[in-house]
Design a protein that fits this description.
single chain, about 210 residues, mainly beta, Protocatechuate 3,4-Dioxygenase, subunit A, four-stranded antiparallel β-sheet, about 30% strand
Length: about 210
């Protein structure tokens, strides 16, 4: 059972409840693009599931950490929802390690790669945005570690009308003071209980749909 329904808002991204994240141009309202951030620990293969907690094939659950649901929305610079975008997520588990085989050789021998037998946590997943540009992942609250100093989840977005986009969600709770504010997430007014929040990712560029 999921303990927390948690979504996030990137300070650089447009909040669905805060007009300060909008910029006004001659042709109307636009959304500020989200900054990119890249990570060396992208998995070699992304599971085709938005549940990062369970391995496929009925593997018994053996989990360690605080379960959460993150909910997001993807828009373009005109604030138009990006429909049918592929969204990929990856992160470390409650033990501070990645529970999959990384794509890049630089990460394969890292001490941050976990023994797969220690948990059923997958640590990576994929999904698609719906007709409102929305998506969600079931996962753990990522740990704060000395190496990174911040709890974060890496996100990659792919869509035929946009360049591949990668960023990260950094949780406000426990964020390092030196963290650039555009990557820090924060709570909005709750809509689904005290701990409900949301985040939005704005892709640079504009889709063929000019308004919404």
């Amino acid at each position: 059972m999921i303990n927390i329904i948690l979504s996030l808002v990137c300070l650089s991204c447009i909040s669905m409840f805060d007009n300060s994240a909008y910029a006004t141009k001659k042709d109307g309202v636009v959304c500020k693009p989200t900054p990119q951030s890249f990570d060396n620990f992208e998995p070699e293969i992304f599971p085709k599931s938005n549940n990062l907690l369970r391995s496929p094939g009925g593997v018994p659950a053996k989990l360690f950490g605080e379960k959460i649901v993150i909910r997001g929305k993807i828009v373009d610079e005109n604030c138009v929802p990006v429909i049918d975008a592929k969204v990929f997520a990856w992160q470390r588990g409650g033990d501070g390690k990645y529970h999959y085989t990384p794509l890049k050789n630089i990460a394969k021998d890292s001490n941050l790669i976990a023994d797969k037998s220690t948990s059923s946590f997958v640590g990576a997943g994929s999904t698609s945005t719906d007709n409102k540009g929305e998506f969600y992942f079931i996962t753990y609250m990522p740990p704060n570690e000395q190496v990174e100093k911040n709890a974060f989840i890496s996100i990659r977005v792919e869509h035929k009308e946009f360049d591949m986009f990668e960023t990260r969600l950094i949780f406000q709770k426990g964020a390092d003071e030196a963290t650039p504010p555009e990557f820090i997430t924060f709570a909005l007014d709750p809509t689904q209980g005290k701990e409900a929040k949301e985040f939005m990712i704005t892709l640079p560029g504009r889709s063929k749909i000019r308004s919404f």
